[in-house]
């Protein structure tokens, strides 16, 4: 009987704390930028978490740790789903947008499907040369 009372009190306390934390997050408002995983340069290295911002028409990636990376003149060259191997490192339901930017740089940006359209506003698709 005592175990049941302790379990119920623990559940009520946990529910109260979760509800309080949820209210604090919603009161703070939305966080700017698009959450993503980035591999720089494209096809090499490891996936790193961060956010993509589109300020004054120029995209930039801000990693969780490290210095921001500007993507001047960025153009999206392709969109694909992650491979099985990539799905282990990033969310398997995400979409990978391959981009090139000035200075012959390339980057792969993994975002959730609902964020692809917003990312393409920051990094428009390249013109096809056909």
Folded structure, characterized:
With 130 residues, this protein is an alpha+beta fold. The protein has a 7-stranded antiparallel beta sheet with strand order 4-3-2-1-7-6-5. The chain is elongated, with a radius of gyration of 20 Å. The chain is built from 3 helices and 7 strands. 18% of the residues are buried.
Highlighted features:
alpha+beta, 7-stranded antiparallel beta sheet
Describe the secondary structure blueprint for this structure.
Layout lengths: L1 H27 L5 E6 L8 E8 L2 E6 L5 E3 L3 E6 L3 H6 L5 E7 L3 E7 L4 H7 L8
Antiparallel strand pairs: 1-2, 1-7, 2-3, 3-4, 5-6, 6-7
The value of Rg in angstroms is: 20 Å
Helices and strands, in order, run as HEEEEEHEEH
Low-confidence region ranges = none
Taking the alpha carbons of the first and last residues, their distance comes to: 76 Å
Helix content: 25-40%
Counting DSSP H or I runs of 4 or more residues, the number of helices is 3
Strand content: 25-35%
**Main β sheet profile:** 7 strands, antiparallel
